[in-house]
């Protein structure tokens, strides 16, 4: 069975600082996918970034990067130069065997609430 | 291009009533999923589909049915509503593209069962 753990219920960060949100996972699948999502106070869910377990390089999307350490089973999200609009809940998630029929079976962590101070 | 649409946005049901939450996407995505989000928690997968005619159960399927007769539509049926099904329901669609995913969520349906 897969499991996602986010140990930081909440974080406060000063605007323009970099932020690291922690995520560890557990799975017996030989390959898997890792995801991060943002949920602002408006309630919508926004897909941010994806990392395949077989990818050699860390995924990046604009100010977001995923610090993937396979041996440690961690997939931390790094937000560079934080902005007030980054204040939101952030969820880490994973799916088994990316890009096959099970790939839409995405399991979520409990989330981290990030608050950016001006 | 509307993305993922969900209806209704809000719904109040009495215990024992049934209803269908609608979800539609216009991006020709293969994968669609239904999640529920309880207060202060992450999303839990109810059912998912990897293509028309193919569905499977997620973490919390009891009390819900789905079907996928077309690529575009993925309705979620509550068979006999219970207060424990009070939640926010999200529909999502996704498609692998170029080593990553194209993925979108609907705006959510807030359901209250009394």
Description:
Chain A has 118 residues and is an all-beta fold. Chain A is built from no helices and 12 strands. In chain A, the strands form 3 sheets. In chain A, strands 2, 5, 6, 10, 11 and 12 form a 6-stranded mixed sheet that branches. In chain A, strands 3-9-8-7 form a 4-stranded antiparallel sheet, with no helix packed on it. In chain A, a hairpin with a 6-residue loop joins strand 5 (32-39) and strand 6. With 114 residues, chain B is mainly β. In chain B, the strands form 2 sheets. In chain B, strands 2, 4, 5, 6, 9, 10 and 11 form a 7-stranded mixed sheet that branches. In chain B, strands 1-3-8-7 form a 4-stranded antiparallel sheet, with no helix packed on it. Chain B starts with a strand and ends with a strand. The chains are: A mainly beta (118), B mainly beta (114). At the A-B interface, strand 6 and strand 11 of A face strand 4, strand 5, strand 9 and strand 10 of B.
Summarize the structure.
The complex is a heterodimer of chains A (118) and B (114). Chain A is an all-beta fold and 118 residues long.
Task: Determine the N-to-C terminus distance of chain B.
Answer: 36 Å
Derived from helix and strand composition plus strand pairing, the structural class of chain B reads mainly beta
Terminal CA distance of chain A? 41 Å
Q: Biggest interface: chains and residue counts?
A: A-B, 27 and 29 residues
Number of helices of chain A: 0
Main beta sheet of chain A: 6 strands, mixed
Helix proportion of residues of chain A, in percent?
under 10%
Taking Cα atoms only, what radius of gyration of chain A do you get, to the nearest Å? 14 Å
Shape of chain A: globular
Query: What would you call the quaternary organization?
Result: heterodimer
Q: Biggest β-sheet of chain B: count, sense, barrel?
A: 7 strands, mixed
Strand content of chain A: over 45%
> How many individual helices of chain B?
0
Task: Give the class of chain A from helix and strand content and strand pairing.
Answer: mainly beta
Query: Helix proportion of residues of chain B, in percent?
Result: under 10%
Shape of chain B: globular
Catalogue the unreliable spans of chain A.
none
Mean pLDDT of chain B: 93
User: What is the total tally of β strands of chain B?
Assistant: 11
Give the SSE string of chain A. EEEEEEEEEEEE
The H-and-E topology of chain B, N to C, reads as: EEEEEEEEEEE
